[in-house]
Model the fold of this input.
Amino acid sequence: MSAIVTLSRQFEQFQQLAFHQQPALAQQLAAVQDWQKNRLVQQHQQLFNQHQRIAHFLTTRLYNLNDLIMLGNQLEKALNEKIKLDRFLPHGVLDAAITAFHLAYLTLKLDEQVAKYILDQGVKTIHDEHIHQAMLALQQSDTRLKQLLLLQQLSQALQHYGRSFLTQSAFRLARRTAYRRQFNFLYDYLTDCFAAIRQTGNSTAFFEAFIAAEKQVLLHLDQGHAAPFGQNCQIAQT
Done:
């Protein structure tokens, strides 16, 4: 399947998410994502302190609704103008971009389901138990595991291509074309991805530890653990 077909399908799925047309759901979704980011920072505090650059990228770029919307806009531009991104972006870089968008979309889809469930319950202020109840009711464990698999694939792609001299040389040469065609955001986003990897001494160890800990959270959920998220993850106001 060509990159443009894959991106087209992913963009269609992104556009079908309900929050685009439902302001109340969009607001609740933002609250759920705030809660999730607070949880990640608290639950992985020691790991994040040891790998601050990649942890910052994970919580502020990969887990960022506004960035996903901007990436969606860039994909829409490419599709509408029939611009083949693989004509100026290296193959490996484009593969990493596709995986990153897929991961961000799946994360958003799962969080939207949680947000809708909580909204339907009439909850105004989100606490740990609301997320816990929603994830159990929605039976998200298997899909959350798929989410972690995508993160693992993305980390491997970023490490491989981010440390490849040939790929990075070709990527730097693509900057002028990307900017001329107004794909500044996409290019800068990918630049930040690779920079976070290069500036992290042992990014493999970071992702392995992070993914293992997140799998433990899902296991605690399935086993009916009273506090699967650990300490209180700070409320998020809707």
